[in-house]
TrEMBL record, chain A:
Keyword field: Membrane, Transmembrane, Transmembrane helix
UniProt cross-references to PANTHER family, sorted A to Z: ALA-INTERACTING SUBUNIT (PTHR10926:SF72), CELL CYCLE CONTROL PROTEIN 50 (PTHR10926)
Highest taxon of source: Eukaryota
Keyword rRNA processing on entry: no
Localization annotation: Membrane
Cellular compartments per GO CC: endoplasmic reticulum; Golgi apparatus; plasma membrane
Protein family: Belongs to the CDC50/LEM3 family.
Entry protein name: ALA-interacting subunit
Transmembrane regions listed in the UniProt entry: 57-79, 314-336
TrEMBL record, chain B:
Source species: Aegilops tauschii subsp. strangulata (Goatgrass)
Primary location class: membrane
GO biological process: phospholipid translocation
Alphabetical list of SUPFAM superfamilies matching this protein: Calcium ATPase, transmembrane domain M, HAD-like
TM region positions: 69-88, 100-117, 146-168, 204-224, 244-263
Pfam families (alphabetical): PhoLip_ATPase_C
Protein name: P-type ATPase C-terminal domain-containing protein
Cellular component, GO annotation: plasma membrane
Amino acid sequence: FIFDFFNARLHFGCSRMQMYPLEMEGNSNPKTTNKPKYSKFTQQELPACKPLLTPEIVIAAFALIGALFVPIGLASLHASRQVVELVHRYDASCVPVDDKVGFIQNSRTDKTCTVTMTVPKYMKSPIHVYYLIDGFYQNHRRYVRSRSDKQLRYKSAAHLTSDCVPEGDTADHAPIVPCGLVAWSLFNDTYTVRVNGVVTQVNKKDIAWKSDKNNKFGKNIYPSNFQKGRLIGGATLNESIPLSEQEDLIVWMRTAALPTFRKLYGRIEKDINANDNVTVVIQNNYNTYSFGGSKALVLSTASWIGGKNNFIGIAYLTIGGLCLSLAMGFLVLYMVKRRNFGDPSNLSWNR
Amino acid sequence: MTLAIGDGANDVSMIQMADVGVGINGQEGGQAVMASDFSMGQFRFLVPLLLVHGHWNYQRMGYMILYNFYKNATFVLVLFWYVLYTSFTLTTAITEWSSLLYTVLYTSLPTIVVGILDKDLSKSTLLAYPKLYGSGQRNEKYNLNLFVLNMLEALWQSLVVFYIPYFAYRQSTIGMSSLGDLWALASVIVVNMQLAMDIIRWNWIIHVFVWGTIAATVICLFVIDSIWVLPGYGAIYHIMGQGLFWLLLLIIVVTAMVPHFAIKAFSEHFVPSDIQIGREIEKFEALNQCVYGPFIC
């Protein structure tokens, strides 16, 4: 009889005669059951929403993106077209001789150069004056690391120049402040701007970030032993001005992301009218000739979109147009090939 | 693949030889249980073990492996494209702290939570249509085609994340840390949006972890850029104050997601898998009939 009982259980698998062994004795006693305490989390029954892509949602999403992006693209293009920008490359024209490297490295040559531009449209102040450098990899790994941020802020950290090699210490092992290749290669062209013959002042105050001036560069740190070596990489610094006020240095030390970059030189705080002649007298000191780089002078008005850049407007228009055409494409596809939702006859074994 | 189930001492060698051995803890003693991979109290528990838990496990593992490869590939490719513009020196586009925190904090927790909690079909659907189990047998959630598609999506999204800011900021005054912050934030948002699009069941835990991770990323970027010793000091405050940053973030996220969304919309409607039909049945048809016998529903 017992054998038949077990045989029946094995054949019918899930017969109701089988009971969990422990439950046979005192099955109303909670201490002898191994059933875990029920919780929605452990039984994976948390309430949840199950979004599903229906045709309405797909078409609405694409149409919404298209409807949003096309106006943004048009607004961006409009803002970019409003920006008036004058770019004048001067490194080739300012050095008339063939041996440009020799010319620029010779401290006795006269590096004054005059550049004239005609303003095509009315430029509203403030007009930003930038220098645009091409081919200069400020993002080179060794260059980027060649600085000492602690030294820039604390007088007591002046000797921490180990990261700044080869521009860390002088030949007498005195620390250079500010040390490193980034500071050593400081840009040193100067621009004197005349609008219709009248000298217009270029305001060089407040061109660096406030956060840098206040917290990254010390108010009691003065340059010492700077550019005193055999190789001069760029500008020299006035040793009586503290680093927090050396704004050209601060702007230069915020290393640029890409090899073609511009940095703020100053601002012109007067309006310039259309067809005005802008003459800039440049001291062409900086050597971009050794590595095949180029320099240019840029005068630009500002807008909420930054400088003159049609890319963002064109990109928005492209993606907006693409999404609108995808919306229409999907609409056509959904109408051509319909399918019932949630129809079990679509399951692969029912077809 | 073989599964062997047994409850007695004579079943031990069979259970050990099979790929998956299931032992029944019952009247015949505990030897089968000790030799098995899974043990249970009754033979009928085999049905939910395979059809429900086995199916869920396959779907979760398959998706998580593919997603992990994809999210790391996207991030690394963004770093790779930048190397082309640093004279081939290995300057990282993204600050070193953000690179470290990417796998640890910015993208890890949503992955874990989705891998534990997400389900494609409910228990009742899986038990009502046992042939849905065939999706695992046919390798529908993890196969070479899916892997290649994943890698192509990673490639596309890394190109979008890198090049849209590149063209927008190409000749501007942008600094390395500011652009790096934009790349980091865009990568994290794109990768989490991709996960969000593939999550099938949104419960409150998944909501908290997915959106919370993006918020945590923003907080970390602010914290990293508030340390004066690091080169990126102040960068995020500066760049977030520009309108161009937000416009770029929006277009990067949308452009990166459009192919995935379009492929998903197309394949789910015009070449639906059984799982997809199952999901629709759950949502649009009440499951109130039991067709397959008295002990399965």
